[in-house]
Design brief:
4 copies of one chain form a homotetramer.
Chain A (H helix, E strand, L loop, with lengths): L9 H24 L6 H8 L3 H7 L3 H26 L5 H17 L2 H7 L6 H16 L9 H22 L7 H15 L14
Helix pairs in contact in A: 1-2, 1-4, 1-6, 4-5, 4-7, 5-8, 5-9, 7-8, 8-9
The structure holds a DNA duplex (21 and 21 nucleotides).
DNA sequence: GATGAATGAGCGTTCATTCAT
DNA sequence: CATGAATGAACGCTCATTCAT
């Protein structure tokens, strides 16, 4: 009846907007000037909010960093779970390419923040990933050259993540170089795939 | 013949011992609690020294970090230059194994510190490495499957460093697992070596 | 009508009161124990304020001293400009008395602080004073015994300032002794005035 | 008969030389960079002595300043006592000139130090001076225009000291200007001397 | 709630003073 | 005694956190 229906939980909305702008400010400061330059007052100023309000939503400075970390972890989880969901329909070589694409996309956004806060999801997510990837690899056991597939899964994930993470940090431009991406995919393929199913792309005779 | 040989100059000794204990304390604090937790007073306390003494040997806090960084950089340079010197006498597969062994050894000591302070030798050393490695690859051009050998050299070094660095940080125990090391070597071999010279170690039938 | 008129903006008031108490504390410490004994923590303690608050209003310790100096300079400038404004309407002997009175009043307040911080208006004000005083002396050229009137003006001002300044520092009680003031005025009169217009006050036969 | 006779109290000599160089260093530092820049370590370094030795002869930093002050006071006392000794043989006008000359000479040496440390002989010496000067003035009572001769003596001494002291600090060059000295002498003469014995130097008709 | 002035523990650094050599 | 390395209280200043408004 009244316009009430439109005015949905104004408080919650305001709160959410505040939290969002605070987290956004935190992220920007870390990305631009590093973790050491992060101060609650500065966050509040950049977010256009008072310090007091900041402390209404975050118990202390560390909580800001944790929230940023959590969001990064969530972004990773979401993207990787989507990837895992697509996995069954993908051949090994397509899976590898999808994996690299996904990681590159994830590391493109704010590499500085990512490096500063880490992902923070050491156990649970990592485990889940390992399990799903492990299962996937089992279903392709015949095409895989590695005898110890769980170990291979781990090394595969670590290698992809490490290489892309470090490159994002040190030479971000490379991330967008298709030749580089091809090299990375190839590296992973050659590691995982049995010779018969290997990509034919690079060859000394080519 | 006199016991003179054992008598070391007391002043120099004290000084050196002090500097060492200060650097050691600095390293421990960074390794255990991170760069942000580093404070000159804490360093002094941990080193069993007064702040004043600390400032007798280091002009400011940053100098502590720089010294730690310099020591890491020196350790890396020494080890990698030794490795490069051995390269010419090594076959590709041996070279890869030596490379991995060297990096693993370098990352075993204080991965946290290494991550926090970096190596500090971004340009010169890295460049020198790239050049020498590039030259080495050219002399083995026939055994290498990658058409773009400079790019391959870079990806090879990045992959090795990234994988070992990140593993040292996240799962240091793995560094000492021979199976893991074997996987890493194999990953690099398969990426670099032409099929004819590929390792026969892993096989789906094994 | 409402009591609004009495209600002052609370924020501005608090701020102003804080600044005042900080400056007051600074002044007291300098006066009692000297500039060397001035420390921001002590100022804060004496002012009944936290160091943090002090730094909300003053960017650093030097700013405290500068503010004190500025206030002294302002007090001097105001008083001396008022005096200069009155000069044209005054005879030489009255002018001298007014001059002495003004300086004595200015030096009565906190001689220690004044000595420690100086006035800070070395060039501009001093110059302006010299000019005005010089002009005044010219209009009374006939009554003045000194041939070099600009030099006389300078020595006059220096002598008055120096004598009163040093007495304020070393024997403040004298400043309120009318006999002493009379001596000072007489000293200046005898120096400046031609014999015909000399005060008849003191005489060996009196 | 051995050369012993020449080697007089070597220890005392060494000590004395040390004390001298320490005091000299202290004086130089104060004169050049101010009291605030005085530090025991710096004094020791400038004096070519170890801090430990410094503390052998001076119980603390303040003692350094006190010694410098004492030496200044002694220099003043000596010079003024010599002056006082000459007083009886001097006419009033000569006495005034001698007084000014003496003070100017005393203030020429290290005005910065003098101002920083003061003279430190407030009571005894000042009193002694006042007494002798008072006595001298009494013997010339007939030539003096001031009825209250003790007060006149004090104002005379204060005016001379203040004017010369402040000028030494602010415009040291003036100290060597004969015209300025003449003005100062004349100021003091006119204040003290009865009209009959007044200097004829300056006159409006000259 | 929101605000931002106020707080004070703690930081990096200095320097008067001590004491083992 | 001379030395100067060692000490640690104290300084100027910052910033995470609180709380009166």
């Amino acid at each position: 009846m009244a316009p009430k229906a439109l005015r949905k939980k104004p408080k919650q909305d305001r709160s959410k907007a505040m939290v969002e702008s605070i987290i956004e400010a935190t992220t920007r400061i870390i990305e631009e000037d590093g973790l050491a330059a992060l101060s609650t007052n500065r966050v509040a100023r950049v977010a256009g909010v008072s310090v007091g309000s900041l402390y209404q939503y975050f118990p202390n400075k560390e909580a800001l960093v944790q929230e940023v970390r959590a969001r990064f972890a969530a972004r990773f989880e979401t993207a990787l779970l989507e990837l895992l969901a697509r996995l069954p329909g993908l051949g090994l070589r397509e899976a590898i390419r999808a994996w690299v694409e996904t990681l590159v996309a994830l590391h493109t956004e704010s590499p500085g923040v990512h490096n500063a806060v880490g992902t923070g999801s050491p156990e649970k997510t990592h485990h889940a990933l390992a399990t799903v990837v492990g299962g996937y690899l089992e279903t392709h056991a015949g095409e895989i050259r590695r005898p110890d597939r769980p170990l291979a899964g781990r090394v595969f994930m670590d290698a992809a993540e490490a290489l892309i993470h470090n490159t994002a940090l040190r030479e971000p431009a490379l991330l967008e170089d298709p030749a580089w991406a091809e090299e990375v995919c190839d590296l992973l393929e050659r590691y995982i795939l049995a010779d018969g199913s290997t990509s034919s792309t690079p060859s000394a005779s080519a």
